[in-house]
Design goal:
Structural class: alpha+beta
Distance between the termini: 45 Å
Oligomer: single chain
Number of domains: 3
CATH class of the largest domain: Mainly Alpha
Order of helices and strands: HHEEEHEHHHHHHHEHHH
Helix content: 40-55%
CATH architecture of the largest domain: Orthogonal Bundle
Radius of gyration: 19 Å
């Protein structure tokens, strides 16, 4: 299952023209604009699921809980897209855990890990940066460059053969002790600003295609700007800004 899931992830990156040499620049944009998967990002109530995947009238949908840290949200997107690509059908993920034993959940994890951090890209990163070893600083830099959690960076370093079991266990203990907290700021690292990042300012970020439908209805006079704002869960100024961005000529 792991190998077939990783193969599916590599094929998905190929289909989305992402290659295998580096991180995914903007996973939400890639899934909506290139893979045709609608993505909703919402602040769910306490105890709400991490994510979900379903298909309605032939349209695949992914839901992501924006109460989770951004790096977890990106992994959730990769995980739910894994359910999509692996043909798992409707899925509701209360939590996404690395050591999942359910075959579908384990497969989606393997897919997400290879989709976000291909072994080939991890090896290229190490060859480019040439660190003397894999310490906590290196792990934080690697995680930041791929916009994943340090835990994911740890397991992918191990999968690429950069860590043996003893080194991995030692670093995992340091992560469990939260020694890496604040280290990214101390190292002066800049987090990725992508579509998912910008969605954090909203209570609900509706799928891009829904935005287009609502703006078209507004243009046609079917609804006014107040109704458009209500449908999209945003303010009037945001509706006008989206309309301006949509109507702006391509450079």
């Amino acid at each position: 299952m792991t190998r077939s899931a990783e193969n599916a992830a590599r094929q998905a990156r190929h289909d989305l023209a992402l290659g295998l040499e580096g991180p995914v620049p903007d996973i939400l944009h890639s899934l909506e604009h290139d893979a045709g998967v609608a993505v909703m990002v919402a602040r769910l109530p306490d105890g709400g699921p991490a994510g979900a995947y379903t298909v309605e009238r032939g349209q695949p949908f992914i839901l992501v809980n924006s109460n989770d840290p951004l790096v977890r949200q990106r992994f959730t997107l990769g995980h739910e897209y894994g359910h999509h690509c692996l043909g798992h059908g409707d899925m509701l993920d209360e939590r996404i855990v690395w050591d999942a034993t359910d075959p579908k959940e384990a497969g989606a994890n393997s897919f997400a890990a290879e989709f976000l951090m291909p072994v080939a890209a991890v090896n290229l990163w190490f060859e480019t940066h040439r660190p003397l070893g894999v310490d906590l600083d290196v792990l934080v830099r690697l995680a930041n460059d791929f916009s994943v959690s340090c835990e994911v960076a740890l397991w992918r370093s191990k999968a690429s053969g950069r860590l043996d079991a003893l080194q991995s266990d030692r670093l995992k203990a340091r992560l469990d002790a939260r020694e890496h907290w604040g280290l990214r700021r101390e190292l002066g690292l800049v987090p990725l600003v992508d579509t998912l990042f910008t969605a954090q300012s909203r209570t609900v970020r509706v799928p891009g295609q829904m935005v287009e439908y609502v703006l078209q209805a507004c243009d046609a006079g079917v609804i006014d700007e107040d109704v458009a704002a209500q449908r999209l869960r945003i303010g009037l100024d945001d509706v006008r800004m989206l309309a301006q961005q949509r109507d702006a000529p391509d450079e």
